[in-house]
Amino acid sequence: MTALLIKGVRPYGEGEPTNIRVTDGVISAIEPATGADEPVPADLPVFDAAGLVALPGFVDLHTHLREPGREDTETIETGSRAAALGGYTAVFAMANTDPVTDNAVIAEHVWRRGAEIGLVDVHPVGAVTVGLAGAKLAELGTMAASAADVRVFSDDGHCVHDPLIMRRALEYSVALDAVIAQHAEEPRLTVGAQAHEGERAARLGLAGWPASAEETIVARDCLLAGHAGARLHICHVSCAGTVEVLRWAKQRGVRVSAEVTPHHLLLTDERLGSYDPVNKVNPPLRTAADVQAMRAALADGVIDCVATDHAPHAVQDKDCEWASAKPGMLGLQTALSIVVETMRGTGALDWRGIARVLSERPAEIAGLAGQGRPIEVGEPANLALVDPDARWTVRGEELASLAGNTPYEGMELMARVVGTVLRGQVTAGRERIAV
Amino acid sequence: MKHLLTTEGLSAAEATAVLDTADTLKQTLLGREVRKLPTLRGRTVLTMFYENSTRTRVSFEIAGKWMSADVVNVSASGSSVGKGESLRDTVLTLRAAGADCVIARHPASGAAHRLAEWLGSAGTSVVNAGDGTHEHPTQALLDAATLRERLGSLDGRRIGIVGDVLHSRVARSNVHLLATLGAEVVLIAPPTLLPYGATNWPVRVSYTLDAELPTLDAVMMLRVQAERMHGGFFPSAREYSINYGLSEARAALLPEHAVVLHPGPMLRGMEIASAVADSAQAAITEQVRNGVHVRMAVLYHLLAGEEGAA
């Protein structure tokens, strides 16, 4: 029997401090915390959580762990550690590895490595098309039937742009009870694109990535998903116009869900003036009006959840001229802080709301039965323990990822994950044994 | 001035100082048999061109040599760049080899900004000789020098910039500099070749060249690159030429005093009729001549001030 006592924590930041007892990975009791001098049985591991808020462990639908292929920038092990430190108990590892996760062998490798490391549940995302090439469906059924139990498919990094291929993928996924996660970017409208097509990029001479390239694909795919009765998920929504399309599709009953990244909740194209590629990301940072639209849509549920699009890159792929730099930024360890700053700090979401967008909805979208559960007796002990009053300064070199490409370098953020519990095991932060 | 990366943000006083120095240098060298000043003796200037260029590279090289600097040309094809070396490593190597000034042309917008950041605030200066579709500040300065010479002053003058503004670093640099120097700028192009939000630049936008010509003090024709002609930005080279080419008939609409500029290389017959390019109104060879003096002035302001202080 394994056991853990989490002392003095406030679930969802509500009510009086409680002690959460965990037995064999399951919450066995939630009792009022009577005081610091309450006797604790010898040998019982205790996590002193006074002043902390307990949330259900976070679920990231969009993580790049880079293994196999770019183990110089991140591995399943280092990415798992970053995830645990960020409060995550499950992550979805995107398929754009090298080789691509477009078959059961690679999917099972990723899944097994994640399980061996054991810091976070690593679920491989399967590619929709062979080699992410957009031409031929990958063996979705074989991946779904594998030990990795793949239920989320995406060509992320590339748009499944051919409408017929997308239609077939959506239709085929119905039998697997899977979801197709689309990187919505019409490639003909984004040839050579470097930055959000707006006044900023025009002045800087950076080729534009127009909002319409996202909006048109989202509109098309919502119609296709509606016709097929399939489940569609839109990756990293970045444009105000996309929110209106999603609202319309949801009102029509289309089974569509959507995510927004922390960086699209906070950063704008105002940052591009330095040409520092740490700000280069796909989809690009957009305008302040888009950022406001992302926050409002996340608050009212048109955008379902937050996903990090955690994208580690080597120094040489970032410390170069803008056009040669790879798009992407780290996100796992800063996500909670950014969400608190942009959503709770503005009054748009309370802790319950943050639990919804970081844990409950993404778990539902991906069909994870043991994640995103309420903090109640009998539920799995998957928890993120948050210090709501922390102030901390981001330093890329201090993050657990091998790469250090964080756009928040030197920024002071509010709130921080100080402990993570995965089925009763402490995966981040430190419990102590009572003496 | 530490670097010259853009004309955006360059003050009227700074720009005028460079133009005045260029005038002085031009007068000083006028009629001299030996066109060489000792000002930058012992200074090492590197040109680093990652794109094909004849006139800009040669102009900088002559400018450096007339100032007695040691000028070394690095071309992307004949250097370690061909072996896959990063831009950062290349420029740090060149600094270590003793460059006082790096003159860079690069296909990526912002490349000169990155070079300046890597080189830091001490030591080597960077001159942007064209970065992608962003800026080409010395071209704008030499255009301003040429216009000042012909028109006396730029204040209150109306200058038309015609053609592929979207992809033109010359246009961007000119918009900022001309506005700073008090000119009124009109961008004239089909909507497909205008940048997003150009209406909020310090300019007026027009789609009709004929309507603008009669009130212009100068018209600046931009180059149309071959890849744009096939990129669907306009239906055909013929239609472009019919609507935006500076034909003889169209040039006749200009006021008599108006100046015709072209940054080169010209597509005769398409962007500009030969007779117009070779007419007395055209200042195209003067642009090239002034280019040397303006670039001498830029090197002087970047490098000689330091020497004076030492």
TrEMBL record, chain A:
Assigned EC number: 3.5.2.3
Catalytic residues, chain numbering: 309
Alphabetical keyword list: Hydrolase, Metal-binding, Pyrimidine biosynthesis, Zinc
InterPro entries in alphabetical order: DHOase, DHOase/Allantoinase_Hydrolase, DHOase_cat, Dihydroorotase_CS, Metal-dep_hydrolase_composite, Metal_Hydrolase
CDD domains named in the record: DHOase_IIa
Keyword Zinc listed: yes
Cellular component, GO, one term: cytoplasm
Cofactor note: Binds 2 Zn(2+) ions per subunit.
Catalyses which reaction(s): (S)-dihydroorotate + H2O = N-carbamoyl-L-aspartate + H(+)
Positions annotated to bind Zn(2+) 2: 156, 183, 236
Domain Dihydroorotase catalytic, residue spans: 53-239
Keyword Zinc: yes
GO MF entries: allantoinase activity; dihydroorotase activity; zinc ion binding
Pathway: Pyrimidine metabolism; UMP biosynthesis via de novo pathway; (S)-dihydroorotate from bicarbonate: step 3/3
GO biological process, one term: 'de novo' UMP biosynthetic process
Binding-site residues, substrate: 64-66, 96, 282, 313, 327-328
Family: Belongs to the metallo-dependent hydrolases superfamily. DHOase family. Class I DHOase subfamily.
Known role: Catalyzes the reversible cyclization of carbamoyl aspartate to dihydroorotate.
PANTHER family found in the cross-reference section: ALLANTOINASE
The name this protein goes by in its record: Dihydroorotase
Organism name: Tamaricihabitans halophyticus
From TrEMBL, chain B:
Amino acids binding carbamoyl phosphate: 55-56, 105, 136, 139, 264-265
GO biological process, one term: amino acid metabolic process
Domain Aspartate/ornithine carbamoyltransferase Asp/Orn-binding: 156-302
UniProt-listed InterPro entries: Asp/Orn_carbamoyltranf_P-bd, Asp/Orn_carbamoylTrfase, Asp/Orn_carbamoylTrfase_sf, Asp_carbamoyltransf, Asp_carbamoyltransf_Asp/Orn-bd
One Pfam family named in its UniProt record: OTCace_N
Catalysis performed (reactions): carbamoyl phosphate + L-aspartate = N-carbamoyl-L-aspartate + phosphate + H(+)
Aspartate/ornithine carbamoyltransferase carbamoyl-P binding domain: residues covered: 2-149
Stored Gene3D superfamilies: Aspartate/ornithine carbamoyltransferase (3.40.50.1370)
Chain segments annotated as coiled-coil in the UniProt record: none
Lineage top rank: taxon: Bacteria
UniProt-recorded name of the protein: Aspartate carbamoyltransferase
Source organism of the structure: Tamaricihabitans halophyticus
UniProt lineage: Bacteria, Bacillati, Actinomycetota, Actinomycetes, Pseudonocardiales
Primary gene name: pyrB
